[in-house]
């Protein structure tokens, strides 16, 4: 199974409240995938109550020489409930034309940010609002 399928299955498990199963899928994806998959794992760990496991993953993604995936870094910081970082990364994603950014307005993982006016500003700037 490829890593994107593992990530999507992990998110489905999270929505069902199956945290352990979600983290297992994110771990499998991170073993075979890209930095984006490691950011999914950080998100899953944070949401799953394993914040202490998420932090070293993010530190590794941010280490010199690495190119952290902006959209997925925002996702990880949403999981950590770190709103300043969660809002900083979508702007970076916009600067580098991260293709995942077009899913921002429909990705349920970003629900915790929707009530903040900065979220509406980002969505509007992306032209994602009719």
Secondary-structure blueprint of this entry?
Blueprint (H helix, E strand, L loop, with lengths): L2 H13 L3 H14 L2 H13 L3 H11 L8 H10 L3 H13 L21 H9 L5
Quick synopsis:
With 130 residues, the chain is mostly helical.
Nearest-integer average pLDDT? 93
Beta strand count: 0
Question: Assembly state here?
Answer: single chain
Helix content: 55-70%
Examine the secondary-structure arrangement and name the CATH architecture.
Answer: Alpha Horseshoe
SSE-based structural type:
mainly alpha
For the biggest sheet, the summary is: none
- Strand portion: under 5%
What is the H/E order? HHHHHHH
Rg, rounded, reads 14 Å
Distance between the termini: 36 Å
Q: Provide the low-confidence segments as ranges.
A: none
CATH-assigned fold name: Serine Threonine Protein Phosphatase 5, Tetratricopeptide repeat
